[in-house]
């Protein structure tokens, strides 16, 4: 969504200013706060929150590390589907916002009970968290939107939680393939009521799109 100029400034200058604000914010304090295996363990809703969602092995931990400029603040589970907690990270001194690392989805070998618990935790969190400003749904560039991604998007639509689609691992495929994956993801976004129209293209390894994603996170955190 385009932003108008502030104080008579140029919109491009405003975007550059937001990107620099985001760079400075994430260059400062970023700390792990707590893990919540159920809603009873959620931190108090004191700050804007932005959640990261994605299927197992989509590169969620790597992207969170890239956004925060840390090497291992977010750690991938050795066994996909093993981590069934919401992990909270505070950003800023004093705290300006929180990032929420949601448990990965699409784990084929997980027991039915684990899958049911995941759905209950995530659905209840999405529907009841008043400070949740936006969710980032990560999609592997090499595969495009999969059925499990569409299920997650449908869950967000039903919860009326706005979300951005973020392509990961963009450095792993050819430019023509990336263009096709982007087009397919944009087409998918248009089918969902809560999806943000702009699709972010990123590579945690190469730093592609990270500055723009940081700026988007800061902008979303400032939503009224």
Question: If you had to describe this structure to a student in words, what would you say it looks like?
Answer:
- With 224 residues, the chain is an alpha/beta fold.
- It has a single domain (11-221), classed as 3-Layer(aba) Sandwich (Rossmann fold).
- The protein is 37% helix and 18% strand.
- Strands 1-3-4-2-5-6-7 form a 7-stranded mixed beta sheet, sandwiched between helices.
- Helix 1 packs across helix 6.
- The longest helix is centred in the N-terminal third of the chain and has 17 residues, at 11-27.
Describe, in short, the structure shown.
This protein is 37% helix and 18% strand.
Helix content: 25-40%
N-to-C span: 15 Å
The global form is globular
Which structural class do you get from the secondary structure elements? alpha/beta
What is the count of helical runs? 6
Cofactor: Mg(2+)
Protein name: Probable GTP-binding protein EngB
Function: Necessary for normal cell division and for the maintenance of normal septation.
Keywords: Cell cycle, Cell division, GTP-binding, Magnesium, Metal-binding, Nucleotide-binding, Septation
Keywords:
metal-binding, alpha/beta, single chain, 6 helices, G_ENGB_dom, seven-stranded mixed β-sheet, Rossmann fold, 224 residues, GTP-bd, disordered N terminus, cell cycle
Itemize the secondary structure elements and their pairings.
Blueprint: H1 11-27, E1 30-36, E2 49-54, H2 60-68, E3 86-91, E4 97-101, H3 112-128, E5 132-140, H4 147-159, E6 163-168, H5 175-189, E7 200-201, H6 210-221
């Amino acid at each position: 969504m385009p932003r108008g100029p502030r104080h008579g400034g140029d919109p491009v200058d405003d975007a550059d200013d937001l990107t620099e604000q985001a760079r400075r914010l994430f260059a400062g304090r970023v700390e792990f706060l707590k893990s919540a295996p159920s809603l009873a363990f959620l931190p108090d809703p004191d700050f804007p929150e932005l959640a990261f969602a994605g299927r197992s092995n989509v590169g969620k931990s790597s992207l969170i590390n890239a956004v925060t400029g840390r090497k291992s603040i977010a750690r991938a589970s050795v066994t996909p589907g093993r981590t069934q907690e919401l992990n909270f990270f505070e950003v800023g001194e004093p705290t300006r916002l929180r990032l929420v690392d949601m448990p990965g989805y699409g784990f084929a070998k997980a027991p039915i009970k684990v899958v049911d618990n995941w759905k209950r935790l995530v659905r209840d969190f999405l529907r009841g968290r008043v400070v949740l400003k936006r969710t980032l749904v990560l999609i592997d560039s090499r595969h495009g939107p999969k059925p499990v991604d569409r299920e997650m998007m449908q869950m967000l639509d039903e919860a009326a939680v706005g979300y951005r689609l973020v392509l990961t691992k963009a450095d792993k495929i050819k430019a023509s393939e990336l263009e096709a994956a982007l087009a397919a993801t944009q087409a998918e976004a248009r089918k969902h009521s809560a999806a943000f129209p702009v699709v972010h293209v990123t590579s945690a390894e190469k730093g592609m799109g990270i500055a723009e994603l940081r700026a988007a996170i800061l902008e979303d955190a400032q939503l009224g």
